[in-house]
Amino acid sequence: MGRKRTIKRDTVLDAAEQVVMRDGAARLTLDAVACEAGISKASVLYDYKTKQALIKAVVERRLAAHATCEQEVAASFSGDPDAAIRTRIEVASHLLTEEDRAVALGLLASLAQDADLREPIARTYGERIAQVTGHSRSPRGALLAFLAIEGLMSLEWLGLHDWAPEERARIIAEIGWLVDQVPAPVSAPASVLSSSPERSTR
């Protein structure tokens, strides 16, 4: 019978996040994670054969934790056709923790350079957009609200701008107002149409 598995995956992932926050994903190595966790490199290799696999596991765990949070919030909007976007706005109303921001910034370079690492995030956003536009009373208004809330959060995730609490609360409330709006139909600007690939004359 093989040796019983005693090292929990969360132990390895917790250590990986600590390394990312301290040194950035560029300096994340299996050796560094093993040292941070106080375990052998072989214990890390048991579950994660490569640095990429370890980073992807960190990303997926973060996404899963965020999804759990959203599910808990969504319960309070049960029966509301706009539940998907209302949930997203409510989640965004809570300030980011410094740990969340540090992990996001630490992973950014690796995510930018690796499509496979971005795939779980891209899939999650695709699902969110489908929920928002597929189930809202005003799909266009809800989509605009979604884009606004994601823009706000991106500035915060990247550490590019921090709002005063009162102003942030006002912005969140105003984004909520967008959900019920029905934008007038508009045509794409001629400059956009003329620069689209199918209209290129090259």
Automatic annotation (TrEMBL):
SUPFAM superfamilies: Homeodomain-like. Residues 6-66 form the HTH tetR-type domain. Keywords: DNA-binding, Transcription, Transcription regulation. One of its GO terms (molecular function) is transcription cis-regulatory region binding. It comes from the Bacteria. The keyword Transcription applies. It holds the Pfam family TetR_N. The keyword Membrane does not apply. InterPro entries: Homeodomain-like_sf, HTH-type_TetR-like_transc_reg, HTH_TetR, TetR_CgmR_C. Residues 29-48 bind DNA. Gene3D superfamilies: Tetracycline Repressor, domain 2. PANTHER family: HTH-TYPE TRANSCRIPTIONAL REGULATOR BETI, HTH-TYPE TRANSCRIPTIONAL REGULATOR RUTR. This is Transcriptional regulator, TetR family. It comes from Stappia indica.
